[in-house]
Write a structure and sequence with these properties.
Elements: H1 5-22, H2 25-40, H3 42-47, H4 55-66, H5 72-83, H6 90-104, E1 107-114, H7 120-134, E2 137-144, E3 151-156, E4 159-164, H8 165-177
Parallel strand pairs: 1-2
Antiparallel strand pairs: 1-3, 3-4
């Protein structure tokens, strides 16, 4: 799949600005997610750029199909993306919009991987510590990986906190090899 991150950026920023003005972050998030899923469907994906279908025909068909499901602004966005040949960038637009939204709402998605299942009391303690460290609201996805031996690996965007036994062993190995 092509990387549409550069093409998606101005559209994501524009939608984010509109959502902020309307105080409608969730509405736009849901619309962009639905649209991203729509263009990922094989039937729709095969129509994008199909030589037998003009841009205006594709835009009209999608607008008609989406008119009762999405707001007029979201349908207008679809038309704009089709006319500019950017419809395939919708998943990247949705992803970048969610990043902008998370920043504006001071929240971050965190993945915590531990060697064993973490009980609910420990989960709450760890969540509170991560919230305090990152100074944001956190949405946590819990995973287990027995290869870590012990401890936890915390990923929040570009921030990685490695508190695993495996990580400490790697640090020790590196120090000994110097």
């Amino acid at each position: 799949m092509a990387d549409y991150s550069t093409l998606a950026r101005p559209y994501a920023k524009a939608v984010f600005g509109l959502a902020r003005e309307e105080n409608a972050f969730p509405k736009w998030g849901e619309a962009l997610t639905a649209l991203a899923q729509l263009v990922a469907e094989p039937t729709v994906a095969s129509l994008i750029g199909h030589p037998a279908l003009t841009k205006s025909e594709l835009a009209g068909a999608l607008a008609q199909a989406l008119a009762d499901k999405l707001s007029a602004e979201a349908v207008a966005l679809v038309r704009l993306l089709v006319e500019n040949g950017r419809l395939a960038a919708l998943p990247a637009i949705a992803e970048q919009y969610e990043q902008l939204r998370a920043e504006a709402e001071s929240r971050v998605d965190v993945e915590i991987t531990s060697a064993v299942e973490v009980d609910s009391a420990q989960q709450e303690q760890l969540a509170a510590a991560v919230r305090k460290r990152l100074q944001r609201e956190v949405g946590i996805e819990w995973k287990t990986d027995p290869d870590l031996i012990g401890g936890a690996l915390i990923r929040a965007g570009d921030v990685i906190i490695d508190g695993t036994v495996l990580g400490e062993l790697e640090h020790l190995k590196t120090a000994l090899l110097r």
